[in-house]
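Issue 218. Parser rejects a valid record. Input:
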Amino acid sequence: MSESKIETAKGMCVVDVTKFLMNRNNWSDDVAYAHFMGMELYKILVDTDSGMYLEPNDYLFECCEIEESRGVDALYDFIKIA
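Output the parser choked on:
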């Protein structure tokens, strides 16, 4: 996949997770995006080597919920077994 397509895919994932947070928490786009940018999931997602940008949205949403409810260690445990 070309670098531009990878960047587009990552951007679409970021938008989708941000919208998920907006809808779930009734947050503005700025608040949701700032929250997501502070998460470990965001760091993993934007790291091209992780390949996380290829995962379906439902998986990313579940990762988001796991990190928020159980923490970063639980997120990494989930990613390893999923």
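Fixed in the parser; the record now loads. DSSP finds five helices and no strands in the chain.
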